[in-house]
Structure formats: C-alpha cells, structure tokens
Design a protein that fits this description.
Blueprint lengths: L1 E8 L2 E10 L4 H13 L5 E4 L2 E5 L1 H14 L6 E4 L3 H9 L7 E3 L2 H8 L8
Parallel strand pairs: 2-3, 2-4, 3-5, 5-6
Antiparallel strand pairs: 1-2
Helix pairs in contact: 1-2
Amino acid sequence: MLDITETKELGITILHPSGKLDTLTANSFEAHMTIHIENGAGDLLVNMEEVDYVSSFGLRSILIVAKKLAPLNRKFVLFSPNPSVYEALRYSGFLNILTVMDSKQDALAVVAPEADGGG
C-alpha cells in the first residue's frame, strides 16, 4: 500500500508518499502525480523519506512523471530517499537523469533559489 499526502511550502506542492512504490502501487502513484501535472500546479517535490521500497515499476512511474513535466518547464525533485531507495535510484541510473536532493531545504532551493537565503 502507498499513501500519499501533500503539503505546500512557498507555493510549491510537496507530495509525501508512504509505503512501497511497486507493481501494486505504481499506477496510483502515477495517477496522483498526473492530477497535479494536469492542474498546472507548478513544480513538484516528492519527499521519499517514508518510501520503504521502489521496484522497477515504481522507477518507471517516476520516470513517466518526470517526462510529463519536462516539456512544461516544470521541475520535478525527489528528496530525502532512505539508503535502499537511494541505491535503487543510483543503480538504475536515475541519479543522472533526475534531481535528487538530501533534504527538503535543498529541494526547495532547487525550485525556489530565493528561499535559500540568497545563496
């Protein structure tokens, strides 16, 4: 099961999935993200801290979301992945094609540099 909650910070939508991103949940994850893309909600940040596991289907859904946002010039940033999710992103090569940050503060600085305190 994958639960997704959301918050806004500095006008930016932050999604907080919790659980496993796998064969059973990838489609619902993608559908939830697509709602935000179609509603023109701006950049998307995804807090990966409470995602326990990402399968190849989960990686595929992440990639689909990134590809939908790219032509719209909207940023897609994953942040705070746990070590096993980080390794899945690294082994799959996703760290080379996606923006993955260590913390929410770092992720916000990517999409709203002025929020970084001018640095």
